[in-house]
Amino acid sequence: MTFQPSHVVSAGETLTGIAIDTYGDKGDRGNHINALAIAAVSGIRDPNLIQPGQAIRIPSVSTADLVAMAADLEQFLADKKISLDDIFGQ
Fold first, then answer.
1. Domains in the chain, ordered, with CATH?
2. E-state strands within 1-90
3. What are the Cα distances from residue 90, in Å, to 50, 74, 81, 84, 85?
4. What pLDDT is attached to residue 49?
5. Residues 6+ apart with CB under 8 A from 62
6. How confident is the model at residue 83 (pLDDT cuts 50, 70, 90)?
7. Are 59 and 6 in contact (CB under 8 A)?
8. If pLDDT is split at 50, 70 and 90, which confidence band does 2 have?
9. What is the separation, in whole angstroms, between the first and last Cα of the chain?
10. pLDDT digits (tens, 9 = 90+) for 8-63
11. Which 3 state secondary structure label does DSSP give 1?
């Protein structure tokens, strides 16, 4: 996964707000997933505790979008009764 250049937290910002500004509004669940992904790649243990001036890393792709695509693929494969073993020949 690649990362955008560091973002420096400004007073009043939250990880959820940064996620929405970066990826657009993905709904409550999607925004939460993206905020947690930013926290994870930035080494932030408590996503509710960020400080002005703190540099964070931002994944170049919305994690919520990746989760949604994976769920869509999983449903497609289930509908077609295709297993990963069928695909990868194991």
1. 3-88 (3.10.350.10)
2. 3-8, 55-59
3. 45, 18, 16, 8, 5
4. 93
5. 22, 23, 24, 26, 30, 34
6. confident
7. no
8. low
9. 27
10. 999 999 999 999 999 999 999 899 999 999 999 999 999 899 999 999 999 888 88
11. coil
Residue 56 phi/psi, 5-degree rounding, is -125, 160
Q: Mark 19-49 as b/e (b = at least 16 C-beta within 10 Å).
A: bbeebeebeeebbbbbbbbbbeebebeebee
Is 5's pLDDT higher than 70? no
Both structure tokens of 8: 């420096």
Residues in the chain, total: 90
Rounded to whole angstroms, the Cα distance separating 22 from 83 reads 35
Which pair of tokens denotes residue 33?
């997933």
Amino acid 4: pLDDT:
61
Distance CA 36, CA 47 (A): 7
90 token code pair: 């194991």
